[in-house]
Every structure is written in structure tokens, then in C-alpha cells.
Design a protein that fits this description.
heterodimer; A: alpha/beta; Aconitase, domain 4; B: alpha/beta; Aconitase, domain 3; 2 domains; 15 helices; 32% helix; 19% strand; globular
């Protein structure tokens, strides 16, 4: 997993799955769902987010539903990483299972909108080159590193199914 | 040192002898609940990509509830695919348009004390009412569970929440949860909530399910209640003979809880959560007088038989206020039949409420009853995030079935105690 470089999109607390993946578009293809991602809190986001940009948020990012479209929509829009003070537990798991880096970032509230960030999820290093600030955080949990490095659960399962001895341990 | 119920179930399912909170273990999954929302629709293409089928179809329970009945070509196609999946893989426990999945598990006696189960929906914690450890996951992880039969989980720290004393008239398990969302907050990942005390011991399984269901709103790994005589009676009522060791699924007296909280049920007033969070709650008086456009009784936690009976109690001899839409979506076909048989539905419709099909419906802006821009609704459901029930500017208040029914009659948010003299 390579280092992510992009601008920060800053959100507050409790950015929930209903605003990430609104129920009204639940049946729609991901292209359409993603256009409405976060529109209830920032209508500019889905239109203007650039590949590699970093979502930075307060507590409980992704709280709520099990809907995996919440993580998929961010990934579809090209978001490179999500940094938050804390996460909804299912969102956190979903994101890593799609290979979308998500890191607990206690200093998230110190980041300014648009601030250029570098995120090394494997090493647990976040940097803001323009301001000279750098943070060390917990990286990807060790027990998930192999799965995340493989690109997520699907590539990981493919590899595992190709090794019947590991499957029938 | 003794162990909590959560630790005992995780130990049994993982085969690990000794566990500490914070450890990561891999558990064998006893039961996997798949729904039309994130079930075959999202999992089947992945199974095809992997070139495999379900490892054990008999451990799968498949339910259509989010998109029923079909209202457009998209929902019809999703439901058809779900039915095709059941046929293709011989899923014996397929419940099509018979009710919401979490409620169907209870009605069929499919969850029991000590079970480790997973569901493709955040409110899977509902099954904790039976002393089971059931967690919600996204469809991507449910895919892994269907293929491998196992899942990694953190051993949770257990928070013991005791309620003691008798509820005053008009106070319910829902009011308990609106207090707890405020008091415990919604940031309880890596924690399991164990509910106890004599208030909980006196609750029906349906009320206990309200507590466990809304552990999702607390952000917890799950919520659960220790098995007791009421658990066994509910299993038998559902046609399942409890296992001989069912009552052993309790925490040890010297179990190590991460935190203990105690609350007085007798002092509790009906609660309402204001937009846009279940934690934004307070006594009903704080919100009283808010004009409403819609009142909604529905979802896996707010439309069971006990809930509909509360509604009928308030509505008997009264009419829904002019200009208010009162929508009632029973949680299952069985709830519907039971409520029809005992006169509950007649009281509800005589008052001018509208019955909607069984299913998740407007709770998640999927079925009938979604809200327009600027509208206000009071709802017996579990979540009131922005846009949850429709338009982004709609405002959703959460309350008990008593409070929702009283508000429907008053045309504004009202204290149910005024209607239960």
C-alpha cells in the first residue's frame, strides 16, 4: 500500500452512514450513489473531491448502518484515506476490507480544510509538509495487514482459496 | 477471575481457553443472517468471482425485508435475485416477505443462549435478547463468512448496565435506550453491553430485544442479556426446545467488567431524541409541542406486538389529529396476525392510522412513508440521522410507541402519560 498524497476534506463528529450512502439511492448503481455521498453535510464534496484526497473527521466517522456502500462511495470517488478521531465499528471494518486506509487520528481536529497531507497507513505516519507537522499513529492493525496489503478481502480470499492446505487447517 | 457472558461465548466460538479483552480471535459462525439489502444482491457476484458457493447453506437464514414489496423495477430485480439465490443454493431457511429479519429469528426460535451469530445489518445485536452474541457486518465481510464459515472479532470489554425498579406508566425499554444513548454515548466500539437488574429481568423478550437492538446506536460490538426462565419460555413458544446447558450462559459472579453503570427505572420519564441523533435525547417535555406531519410505527425494534399494543392503548376512543399521517408497519406477518386476532389492529385503524406492509420501510427511506423536505416526523424506530427517513431537511424525533401514538393524536409531540390515565 503506497503513501497517499492529497488535500484534506474536513468534517465534524458523527458523519454517519446515512449521509455517506443515503437510503434514497440505495438501489441505484454506485456511480449514482457516490454522487450523493456526503451531500447532506457538504454538497461540494462529491463534485470536487480529487483522487488521493484525504477525508479528515471527528469522532464516530461512519457510525450507523452496516451498508458497505458508505466505504465504497468514498473509494469510488477516489478518496485515498480516512483519518478520524474514532470510527463506527462496521464502517471501519468495511473500509479495510475494501483496502481503503482508515486510521485513528487523535489530532484530526487540528487539520485545516484543504491542507495538503501525506498518509503512510502501513507505517502509521501522517505528515503536513507545508506546515512541517508530523504525527505518528497506530497503523493498520497487524492481524489485518496481510489482507489490506493484498488489496482487501476479495483478493485475500482468492489467494486463500488457491491454497487448500491453509483453508483446511 | 470469572468471565462475562460475552467472553464465554467468544471463547466457545473461537476454541480459545483463556481470553482477555482486546485480543483478536477467529470465531466459527453458528448462524449467518443475510437480508435482501446486503445479501445475495452483493454477495452472489463475489461468490461467482471466487468460483465458490456457501460453505454451509444450512447455517444461512435469508430474509427479504428491506425492499419488500417491490415498488419499482430495481427493487423487483433485487428481490428476484434474492429468491434465485435461495433456490440455487437450497437455502432452507428463506423467509420471503414474512417480516423483518431480526424479528423472524426470534419468531422461529433460531437464536439461542451461547450462540455466536453474524448478520448483514447493524441491528443484528437484537438477538442478544436470547443470550446470543450476534454482530452486524457489511456485505463484504458476510461474503467471507459465507465462504469460510468464520470471522475475526475483538474480545470485547464488557460494560454491565443495570436497571432496577419498576417503570412508571407510559415508560418503556425504548425510553431506557434513549437515556443510554445520551449517557453512554455512541462510541462504544470494542465493548459489549450486558443489560441486567430487576427491571430487565421483568421484561419480556421483545422488550429485551429493544435494549439489544439499540446497542447498535451505542456503537457497541453487540448487546446481550443473560439467559433466564423467560428466555427458555420464549424459545419454547417459538417451537425450539432449549439446550440442556441454556441457563449456564450467564456471567460469573466475579466476572471482570470494564465498567458498571446503574440506573433507577422508577425515576425514568418518557424520552424523546431530537434531530439528528439518538443521543440528542431528553425527557419528552423538552420536545413537547413540536408540530408533526407524520408519526411512524415500524422497524425491527419498534413494531412488534408489544409495541402495537401500546399504540392501541393510547388510540382507543381517540382519533389521529387532522393533518397528521399516522403510519403503522407491523414488524412481521406473525405480528400482523396476532394484532388482528386480539383487536389491536382494529383499534389502530379505527383511529385513522394507515397500515403499511411489513418490512424495513420508511425507517431507512426504502419503503412507503418517506419524508419530504422540511417535514417533521416522530418515529418508534432506532435512528434519526439526517436524511435517514427521506429528504435531508426532514426532522425525525425518536420516541416509544406510546409517545408516537400520543403525538399522532395531539398533532404535536406529546407526553403519553396524559393519554394513559
Amino acid at each position: 500500500m503506497s503513501v497517499v498524497r492529497g488535500g484534506a476534506w474536513v468534517f465534524g463528529d458523527d458523519v454517519n452512514t446515512d449521509v455517506l450512502a443515503p437510503g434514497l439511492y440505495f438501489k441505484a448503481p454506485m456511480e449514482e450513489m457516490a454522487r450523493h455521498c456526503l451531500e447532506a453535510v457538504d454538497p461540494r464534496f462529491a463534485r470536487e473531491v480529487q483522487p488521493g484526497d484525504v477525508v479528515v473527521a471527528g469522532a464516530r466517522f461512519g457510525v450507523g448502518s452496516a451498508r458497505e456502500q458508505a466505504a465504497m462511495a468514498l473509494q469510488h470517488l477516489g478518496v485515498g484515506a480516512v483519518l478520524a478521531v474514532s470510527f463506527g465499528r462496521i464502517f471501519y471494518r468495511n473500509a479495510l476490507n475494501f483496502g481503503l486506509p482508515v486510521l485513528f487520528f487523535p489530532a484530526a481536529r487540528d487539520i485545516a480544510a484543504g491542507e495538503a497531507l501525506e498518509v503512510d497507513a502501513v507505517a502509521g505516519r501522517i505528515a503536513s509538509p507545508a506546515t512541517g507537522r508530523e504525527w505518528s499513529v497506530n497503523g493498520i492493525p497487524p492481524h489485518l495487514m496481510e489482507m489490506v496489503q493484498a488489496g482487501g478481502l476479495m483478493p485475500y480470499l482468492k489467494r486463500r482459496l488457491a491454497q487448500p492446505s491453509a483453508e483446511n487447517r | 477471575m470469572g468471565r462475562t457472558l460475552a467472553e464465554k461465548i467468544i471463547a466457545r466460538a473461537s476454541g480459545a481457553a483463556d481470553l482477555r479483552p482486546g485480543e483478536i480471535v477467529t470465531c466459527r459462525v453458528d448462524l449467518a443472517l443475510l437480508l435482501d439489502s446486503g445479501g445475495p444482491r452483493r454477495i452472489w457476484p463475489r461468490l461467482k468471482e471466487l468460483g465458490v458457493g456457501p460453505r454451509d447453506p444450512d447455517r444461512i437464514v435469508l430474509v427479504t425485508d428491506h425492499f419488500v414489496p417491490a415498488v419499482d423495477a430495481e427493487s423487483a430485480a433485487i428481490l428476484k435475485l434474492t429468491r434465485d439465490f435461495a433456490r440455487e443454493y437450497g437455502i432452507r431457511r428463506f423467509y420471503d416477505m414474512q417480516g423483518i429479519g431480526h424479528v423472524r429469528l426470534m419468531e422461529e426460535g433460531l437464536v439461542e443462549p451461547g450462540m455466536f451469530a453474524c448478520g448483514g445489518d447493524s441491528h443484528s445485536s437484537n438477538a442478544g435478547a436470547f443470550g446470543a452474541y450476534m454482530m452486524g457486518f457489511g456485505a463484504i465481510e458476510m461474503t467471507g463468512i459465507v465462504v469460510t464459515g468464520e470471522i475475526w472479532v475483538p474480545v470485547p470489554a464488557t460494560v454491565r448496565v443495570d436497571w432496577n425498579g419498576r417503570f412508571a406508566r407510559g415508560v418503556t425499554a425504548k425510553d431506557v435506550m434513549l437515556v443510554l444513548c445520551r449517557e453512554l454515548g455512541m462510541d462504544n466500539a470494542f465493548r459489549a453491553i450486558e443489560y441486567g437488574g430487576d427491571t430487565v429481568a421483568a421484561m419480556s423478550i421483545g422488550e429485551r430485544a429493544v435494549l439489544c437492538n439499540m446497542a447498535a446506536e451505542l456503537g457497541a460490538e453487540t448487546g446481550l442479556v443473560e439467559a433466564d426462565a423467560a428466555t427458555l419460555a420464549a424459545l419454547r413458544a417459538a417451537g425450539r426446545e432449549p439446550a440442556p446447558d441454556a441457563l449456564s450462559w450467564r456471567s460469573d459472579p466475579d466476572a471482570a467488567y470494564a465498567e458498571r453503570r446503574a440506573f433507577d427505572a422508577a425515576a425514568l420519564a418518557p424520552q424523546v431524541a431530537a434531530p439528528h441523533s439518538p443521543a440528542n435525547s431528553g425527557p419528552v417535555g423538552d420536545a413537547a409541542g413540536e408540530r408533526i406531519d407524520q408519526a411512524y410505527i415500524g422497524s425491527c425494534m419498534g413494531a412488534k406486538l408489544t409495541d402495537l399494543r401500546m399504540v392501541a392503548e393510547v388510540l382507543r376512543g381517540r382519533r389521529v389529529a387532522p393533518g397528521v399521517r399516522f403510519l403503522v408497519a407491523p414488524a412481521s406477518q406473525q405480528v400482523w396476525a396476532d394484532a388482528a386476532a386480539d383487536g389491536t389492529l382494529a383499534a389502530i385503524t379505527a383511529a385513522g392510522a394507515t397500515l403499511l406492509p411489513t418490512g424495513c420501510g420508511a425507517c431507512a427511506a426504502l419503503g412507503a412513508g418517506v419524508l419530504a423536505e422540511g417535514e417533521t416526523c416522530i418515529s418508534s424506530t432506532n435512528r434519526n440521522f439526517k436524511g435517514r427517513m427521506g429528504a435531508n431537511s426532514a426532522r425525525v424525533f425518536l420516541g416509544s410507541p406510546y409517545t408516537v401514538a400520543a403525538s399522532a393524536v395531539a398533532g404535536r409531540i406529546a407526553d403519553p402519560r396524559e393519554f394513559l390515565q
